[in-house]
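Field: COMPLEX_INPUT
Field: COMPONENT_COUNT = six
Field: RESIDUE_TOTAL = 1578
Field: MODE = joint
Values follow.
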Amino acid sequence: MIETVLFAELAWPQVASRIAAGAPIFLPIGATEQHGRHMAMNVDAVLPTAIAERVARRVGGLVAPTIPYGNRSQPKTGGGRAFPGTLDLTAATFSAVVRDVLLGLFRHGAQRIVVLNGHYENISPAIEAIELAFDAIGRDRADGLIVLRLDHWDLIAPGTIDRMFPDGYPGIELEHASVIETSMMLALRPELVDLAAAVDDGPAEFVRWERYGAPTPEVPASGVLSMTKGASAEKGEWLLHDIVEALVAAIEREFASNQRGPA
Amino acid sequence: MIETVLFAELAWPQVASRIAAGAPIFLPIGATEQHGRHMAMNVDAVLPTAIAERVARRVGGLVAPTIPYGNRSQPKTGGGRAFPGTLDLTAATFSAVVRDVLLGLFRHGAQRIVVLNGHYENISPAIEAIELAFDAIGRDRADGLIVLRLDHWDLIAPGTIDRMFPDGYPGIELEHASVIETSMMLALRPELVDLAAAVDDGPAEFVRWERYGAPTPEVPASGVLSMTKGASAEKGEWLLHDIVEALVAAIEREFASNQRGPA
Amino acid sequence: MIETVLFAELAWPQVASRIAAGAPIFLPIGATEQHGRHMAMNVDAVLPTAIAERVARRVGGLVAPTIPYGNRSQPKTGGGRAFPGTLDLTAATFSAVVRDVLLGLFRHGAQRIVVLNGHYENISPAIEAIELAFDAIGRDRADGLIVLRLDHWDLIAPGTIDRMFPDGYPGIELEHASVIETSMMLALRPELVDLAAAVDDGPAEFVRWERYGAPTPEVPASGVLSMTKGASAEKGEWLLHDIVEALVAAIEREFASNQRGPA
Amino acid sequence: MIETVLFAELAWPQVASRIAAGAPIFLPIGATEQHGRHMAMNVDAVLPTAIAERVARRVGGLVAPTIPYGNRSQPKTGGGRAFPGTLDLTAATFSAVVRDVLLGLFRHGAQRIVVLNGHYENISPAIEAIELAFDAIGRDRADGLIVLRLDHWDLIAPGTIDRMFPDGYPGIELEHASVIETSMMLALRPELVDLAAAVDDGPAEFVRWERYGAPTPEVPASGVLSMTKGASAEKGEWLLHDIVEALVAAIEREFASNQRGPA
Amino acid sequence: MIETVLFAELAWPQVASRIAAGAPIFLPIGATEQHGRHMAMNVDAVLPTAIAERVARRVGGLVAPTIPYGNRSQPKTGGGRAFPGTLDLTAATFSAVVRDVLLGLFRHGAQRIVVLNGHYENISPAIEAIELAFDAIGRDRADGLIVLRLDHWDLIAPGTIDRMFPDGYPGIELEHASVIETSMMLALRPELVDLAAAVDDGPAEFVRWERYGAPTPEVPASGVLSMTKGASAEKGEWLLHDIVEALVAAIEREFASNQRGPA
Amino acid sequence: MIETVLFAELAWPQVASRIAAGAPIFLPIGATEQHGRHMAMNVDAVLPTAIAERVARRVGGLVAPTIPYGNRSQPKTGGGRAFPGTLDLTAATFSAVVRDVLLGLFRHGAQRIVVLNGHYENISPAIEAIELAFDAIGRDRADGLIVLRLDHWDLIAPGTIDRMFPDGYPGIELEHASVIETSMMLALRPELVDLAAAVDDGPAEFVRWERYGAPTPEVPASGVLSMTKGASAEKGEWLLHDIVEALVAAIEREFASNQRGPA
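Field: COMPLEX_OUTPUT
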């Protein structure tokens, strides 16, 4: 069978030996959400999956199947549920999925797990999921289990942001479907991006509150919260490089004292 | 952007127009479950996804992201949770995921949905999920929504079974990780199968009850419930052909009276 | 007080001593579901209750109160919810009831429990219920608890089927409200059967998928999935004999190594 | 088939016609709970079932299957969960069962439902269940549905209490397993009562609070909260008469303006 | 910082030392519910909070933040949800809040907790909450935790009732918004009472059942179930005195054997 | 009765008339969470409550009872659950409370609701709560209901931040228990702050991920994430002024087109 870091592409004896050797397990959590007229809806799943694969190859890890549906899309962070095509889960459902997968990994002896997120709205219910998993296991019976949780964009180096946005950075809060995500998609899955279809109707200028029961007219009609101009595959590789290196370093730091087996 | 039938590889305006034109939407539901020493753990996800893609190309449909984690694995149908690597969801979690995705599709106007299953244990909680979706919508407000649910193996033609098993068919209830699944995997993803690693320790002879709190020693140690001998990519294509043709026919029959738009 | 195997007809000190002596506890799970124009709606409750009583008398067991409402009726296995009178539970509710009763029995020290099912749709949520009970107890704290789960019809001997259906067996999947159930009801509760009211509108020829949001016209209007012709009390006793003997043997086999007290 | 008021002993066409004619439906809710050393544990199920049957015969109603497991037993009202044999449900489970049955009855067109309770601890979660059913239906779509809820002991006439307790009434709050319940069981199911086994260790003198995490030593060891002395079948009939007459009157009063069909 | 018995008005090191010293923790549970035309809607929160503060000062305890929303208001005990302004929780929500707070207190080492209730409808779901907390902790791992639960009105001395109602007591079941509650509010928060606005339209004469799907015309239009006449601050102090003294005594009795630290 | 904007301090007829007149309803959502050695644990409840009261007086609104327990405290935003005294709710419980209160307000006819948050971890489950409320109501039946949700700190004017932090702003993400919150508490409840007890052990320098199953040593031992130095009541009034003015303006803008009655 193939050389792979994908958990589900292995046969069970291979998974068993990798877990026994202390392999970190990555759980990418994504979304199926509009990402502008110029890009596929699987961006939030593609990016953490690809990053997890690169890191797993570096650290001897495995990548569990990506959760392809995320927590409810919100207007100010993803355009919201009004956009056609966005398919999401309630917070309770999303948390339950992540909790159940974590419990399964723990049951099989995994003690080093990285929940790698690609969708802003997943942050809070993923935290809740991890808490629920520890609640179910019992804090005093978790036996060395460590779960790291992070958002890939948080690992971008400040210097890279400066290089990418010489005219000023609109801020991560407007990056949905914008230069950062578009660049990484161009680097990873260029066939899922069509810059010619991009519409320049941003950036959004949001009010400092949210409305429910009424539309959020500040969301650009394209679904791109700031802009796509300037996106490139080369910049995408800059970003992926930052994130992968930072994540490798994080894993080495956090899991060093938790070694099991030869790794 | 690429020609694709994958829902999440489209940009949102494309999804919108395809749904408006009446495209059937396929939701493959899978699992991450041991499938013997010779095969990857993603069989139950790979098969319904591949079948859905083939059928979608025939009928102008779209394939929503596959749910990669299934309902709790059971010894008599999948080897059970004791096998390393099997990651599953509680029934409530699994049903909630399927329900939420169905509600999202309905919200976007989809009226023809096919839930295509690859994992035995998913049958009942997928039914519950569909019922819960209709409960949430309101039976009297569902406005033409039709959801079909099926298991791919049920569409295999009896004649094909006879050709595949000239010495007698052990029965579908023992087909987990066995000739049928292995053959289709050889046809679709041969790199995920290593027949040399197959162990001939079946078929299982189960008692007519289930035990909890005690092991199920009748499960062959390999995790293959009947046998892998005789599996081939050619036979895999026979099976896929049967299933695809039967599903195309089913869709034409069931959705004919439910036409929307030009299709 | 009376000689009885019914758990709830005993006073509490009697239950305490019977559990302490290692009595197996039977939990019959039924349904309130249409069973044709010729038969009462309590068939799925009456049969496992009666079988459990017979077996309990043989093995020194007790029969806990039958759960009279089952998981959602489906067209292909029970006619579906469209039939007047069918009262059912969501899967989550049904599983919660079974889980709670199992937890209660475990709390009182019962270690040998048999969940005996009479309604096809109960199978999967009863399995989930047992899993949930072990989740709640903690797999490592279950302290010898063994739960068996079975469907009474699975214990019918193949030879008996041959005797009953000399012209060929339509298959268990069509037996809802048909010869097998009707015969056992004639043996046990003849006053709840009126063969004169039976309508001969089967057998059902189902398509190989399920539809939701649309009717299932293949269900015979009577609600009988195959046929009632040929049903008799005598045949009912054949069936009950098979099931009782097989269950007694199963209990002796499975619980032998789990003896507590003099039994 | 037999003359019966038991919903589940009818075939579906009979249920359909009875509901169409406006038959009130009774749902007895019980428990499996210790009732002293002298009495079976099914008292809380037997009494409301028997009362419902008597009333149903008077008013042309039907009695749905009794829910045999009740909400968690508490020391001050039922002796508590420490008594062997008491099997109960969490409040959420109990409410879900009652809600689901009510929704099923509403789906079939029933508009006059009586939830008749025999177990003190069921009161509050039964109310919640009814509220949840109306929540699920939609208050503005309930279309004439009326649900009455009551506890059988509330319908005993004050004069009867005076006749039964010439030396003073200990109060309904101590009546668990005591003279009232014992008398009605003697009238209805004398084989389930053994007055010779009764122990005279009451009445309980409870403190005015409840303790959790510590025992309730005030509960008499027998489980009888006040006394059994003076119980008789004759008095049981007095009580049943009161309750049946009052319930018939209540139904006539409450459902008069809600007539459907000839009744 | 101030001398206070309010848990949330302390800084965390102060809470830590008070819990370590064995301080009993009071959790007042209230409601936001109509209390007549003459009184604020926070009565059920104000009363247990004030009582808890008085008792906490006596026994060295702390008062956790009052839960201001209670379980669903019912017509016969609080006027019901039809009254404008009443804001309540489902039973499941209410129980979850109380459970979570109890689990938090246990996590911090608290072992003596008093759940002090001011709203009739909270009784049952508060009991369930305590049971759920023990379920989550594990009965065998609760490590000395004792939770008392009580309703403030149960601690009123019989003699005080006689003094207050020389012409006869309508009974506690009609005391909603009536003389007892009004008197205590006059003693504690006179600015929230306007006796001039009281309407004399009681007492209610309820039928012995509850109706759902239909109004409860027996509820007086004012929302006062019996009467306000005769209420006074002086009587309020009589009542508060009774309750505080009885609760101090109860705590001394119940927690004596559970001493930790110097208290 | 008193002049008040507190919903629960009114009698029901007053609430009824205020809602009928279109009064916006404020729902403050808080927490009981450590806020350093120098400050009470109710900061997250006190601040949004006080702000809501000031705004309500300006716009003729009412303030519903503050929810005093918040969603699970996290190390990077509130110090985490390891600090003594922090009492929190699971996300599901917190969302359920907010949902139920919103549904109650909607039931009474309120159409203009402001959920005003004081605790970072509440953001996501409050959003979910609002979504769940609209799910329960039905998006098409919400009949003009508008819910605004905001965090008070988002309404601080940038110029005020500059005035407060002439040496540079550590950023809102470190403001837990720091200058901003301390200043507002000094303005509102000075008796709950003891600057002399403040410890200067910040600011926190967090890693860009979260750990579960292991401590977060980056949290300063005091629980103050950045610093308290420079806090003053005067600055607190600057902040409150900003927030109140911005919220008044937001309400005028958002609710202008939703007028009901004379306001």
